[in-house]
C-alpha cells in the first residue's frame, strides 16, 4: 500500500442496526468505580436526576441496559468539568478493569505470541458487540503501523468525556500488543453519534 493511501480493511457490518440501543452494564459499573476512586462520585451524583441518582449507583455488572442510562450517566460526568486528559486516564483504568471480563478476547490474544495490533483491530467489531448492541465499526489502514477506527450509531459519542474515555480504553488495550500506542480523536469524523480515532503504534 502506498503511503497516504487509505485502505478499508474491515467494513461496517452488514446488516447493521442504525443506532446502539443497549450497552453492557459492566462498562457503567467500572466507570462508577473509577469516579469513586477519584473522589468525584458525590458531585457526579448531584448532577443526576433524583430517579437516576437512586438507580444508577445500584447497577450490577453483566447486564444489558438501555443506552439512555448511559446518556444520563455521561451527561452527569460531563458536568464534572474534567479535562480531556483526566477522562482519557479514567478510560484507560476502566479498560484495564474490563479487559478480563467483557474483553476476554483481548486478554486471550495478549497471551498469544506473535499477535500485533492489526490482529486486535481485526477483532474490533466483535469486541464492540460485547459492549454495545447496534451501531457498528470499521477499520481503515493508513500505513504499516497506522489506522483509523470509525464508530457509528453511538449516542454516547455526543459527550467529550465518553470519547476521551473510550480513547483511553483503546490505548490501554492496544498497549497489550506493542511497546507504545497512540490514539487521538479525528474531529472531522466526530458527531453526536459518530467517532473517528487515529491509531499508531511502535
Give an overview of the whole structure:
The chain has 202 residues and is an alpha+beta fold. The protein contains 9 helices and 8 strands. Helix 5 (84-98) packs across helix 9. The longest helix has 15 residues, at 84-98. The protein has a single domain, classed as H-NOX domain. 36% of the residues are buried. Strands 1-5-6-8-7 form a 5-stranded antiparallel β-sheet. Strands 3-2-4 form a 3-stranded antiparallel β-sheet. The model has no long low-confidence stretch (mean pLDDT 90).
Topology summary:
Blueprint: E1 7-10, E2 22-24, H1 25-37, H2 41-46, H3 50-55, E3 64-66, H4 67-78, H5 84-98, H6 104-110, H7 117-121, H8 124-129, E4 132-133, E5 136-143, E6 146-152, H9 160-174, E7 181-185, E8 195-201
Antiparallel strand pairs: 1-5, 2-3, 2-4, 5-6, 6-8, 7-8
Record keyword descriptors for this entry:
alpha+beta, 202 residues, three-stranded antiparallel beta sheet, H-NOX domain, 42% helix, 9 helices, globular, single chain, five-stranded antiparallel beta sheet
Task: Write a brief caption for the model.
The chain is of the alpha+beta class and 202 residues long.
Level-1 CATH class name? Alpha Beta
- Enumerate how many helices there are, as a single number: 9
Helix and strand pattern: EEHHHEHHHHHEEEHEE
Please describe the biggest sheet, giving its number of strands, its sense, and whether it closes into a barrel.
Answer: 5 strands, antiparallel
The H-level CATH homologous superfamily, spelled out, is: H-NOX domain
Low-confidence stretches: none
| Count of domains | 1
Q: Can you tell me the overall shape?
A: globular
Query: What is the percent of helical residues?
Result: 40-55%
Report the CATH architecture.
Alpha-Beta Complex
Number of strands: 8
Q: Using the coordinates shown, work out and report the CATH topology.
A: H-NOX domain
Q: Give the N-to-C terminal Cα separation.
A: 19 Å
- Give the C-alpha Rg: 17 Å
Q: In percent terms, what proportion of residues is strand?
A: 15-25%
Q: Mean pLDDT, rounded to whole units?
A: 90
Amino acid at each position: 500500500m502506498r503511503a497516504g493511501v487509505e485502505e478499508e480493511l474491515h467494513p461496517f457490518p452488514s446488516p447493521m442496526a442504525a443506532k446502539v440501543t443497549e450497552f453492557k452494564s459492566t462498562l457503567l459499573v467500572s466507570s462508577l468505580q473509577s469516579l469513586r476512586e477519584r473522589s468525584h462520585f458525590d458531585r457526579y451524583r448531584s448532577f443526576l436526576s433524583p430517579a437516576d441518582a437512586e438507580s444508577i449507583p445500584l447497577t450490577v455488572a453483566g447486564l444489558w441496559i438501555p443506552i439512555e442510562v448511559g446518556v444520563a450517566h455521561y451527561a452527569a460526568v460531563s458536568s464534572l468539568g474534567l479535562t480531556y486528559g483526566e477522562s482519557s486516564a479514567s478510560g484507560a483504568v476502566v479498560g484495564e478493569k474490563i479487559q478480563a471480563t467483557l474483553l476476554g478476547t483481548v486478554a486471550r490474544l495478549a497471551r498469544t505470541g506473535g499477535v500485533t495490533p492489526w490482529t486486535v483491530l481485526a477483532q474490533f467489531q466483535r469486541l464492540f458487540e460485547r459492549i454495545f448492541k447496534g451501531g457498528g465499526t470499521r477499520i481503515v489502514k493508513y500505513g504499516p503501523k497506522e489506522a483509523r477506527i470509525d464508530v457509528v450509531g453511538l449516542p454516547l459519542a455526543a459527550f467529550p468525556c465518553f470519547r476521551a474515555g473510550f480513547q483511553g480504553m483503546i490505548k490501554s488495550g492496544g498497549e497489550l500488543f506493542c511497546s507504545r500506542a497512540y490514539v487521538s480523536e479525528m474531529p472531522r469524523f466526530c458527531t453526536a453519534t459518530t467517532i473517528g480515532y487515529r491509531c499508531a503504534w511502535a
